Sequence to fold (398 residues):
Amino acid sequence: MIRRFVVRVAHYPGEGRTLEYAAHWNEYPHGPGTKRVPKSKWFATQADADHFKAEFEKAANAARQAEPVADVTYPPEPLGDNRLRLDSFMVHTWLPARKKKIDPATYKSYESLTRLHITPAIGALKVTDKVLNPVRILAFYDDLAARKIALGSRRAIHSTLRAALSWAVLSNLLTRNPCFQVGRELRQSGESTGTKANPLSAADAARFLAYVDRHEEPWSPLFHFLHDTGVRVGEASALQWANVDLDNATARIESSYSAPAGGDKDTKTHQGRTIDLSTDLVTRLRAWRSAQRVESLRCGRTPRAYVFTNGRGQPQRADGGMRRVFARVLKTLGIAGKGYTLHSLRDTFASTHLSQDWGKLGWVSTQLGHANTATTETHYFAFRSTAATKRYADDIRR
Fold:
């Protein structure tokens, strides 16, 4: 099913291709809000490509007009309490009430999941105990699974709907939340619930950092910092020199950059922490600070407040530019197909230390900024040291 039908024609001259013109578009085979599938078709001349574009968009528009008109529009019109629908309640009552009380990133997630998944499917339902019952909610989740929505996404949708309907209970629209006891039914047969951690191997991590040192030098201090400390990417982006003590090899993590907020905010756990720095990292940061100061003087700028800055003196943020550099290095090294993301550097830190010595659990948890060691165990128990457990099986005979 093609849900978007904008075709872009591009020219790729002088690259040894027989066909130099390409038409690009996206398809959404499992409906709006699902993973896109990029498509392309190549042509010898621009006229051929333009003709394909015109015919493609004509056919796609005709198909869209033939589809039945949905009962739900977004944003929905506000309705009276005596006939309140779920879409109107979530958009006009619940989301505005929560906007000032939750992190911008959480609000953005709530809003997008409401718009892309909840409103189109069940937005027309009335907010009453009779209509919004656990059986109807479970049918909604089963439909998401049938549309190939990933388990992680379904869990996020469930959390959003559960939070909204808890607010409906507080508003006396419902007597109980129909999402309770239903979350355990999200997983379908054959779906894995294993760890999400995806650390780089020791060899891949070494190759990655060595390549960055040689070919992506402006990003080298940041990537080494992420690898050696395990902090979140946003926390590294928000780190300022005033919170770094190189003489004692420590740094104070007090904030985190948030793109939805458009600036720095509290850390994920709303608690600051002091982390340890490796000797290699201290050496690199000393050299980086010196080079940063020289560049600031050369350009007539004041000394940079942030530790990790780009060529314009602005903070290096966790954005598309950082992700593109990371992906480019992985592709060059031939390890792009292993599912690594920027978060993999954090996973690498945790798994490396814990596989060496599970006794480091408390220290690793502090470095990561987890609320407690139980969170660290949940994420990284699969990487526990086997040296301490390999003889446990013999204890049954003692």
User: Anything to note?
Assistant: The CA atoms of residues 18 and 383 lie 50 Å apart.
